[in-house]
Amino acid sequence: MNVLIVFAHPDPRSLNAALRDVAVAELTAQGHTVEVSDLYAMGWTAAVDRADFPQLAPDARLRIAAASSDAFAAGALTDDVTAEQDKLLRADALILQFPLWWFAMPAILKGWVDRVFAYGFAYGVGEHSDRRWGDRYGEGVLAGKRAMLVVTAGGWEPHYGPRGVNGPIDDLLFPIQHGVLHYPGYAVLPPFVAYRVDRLDDAGFDEVADRLRARMRTIETDAPIPFRRQNGGDYLIPSCELRPGLEAPGASGFALHRDERDA
Question: 185 with 140: CB under 8 angstroms?
Answer without folding.
Answer: yes
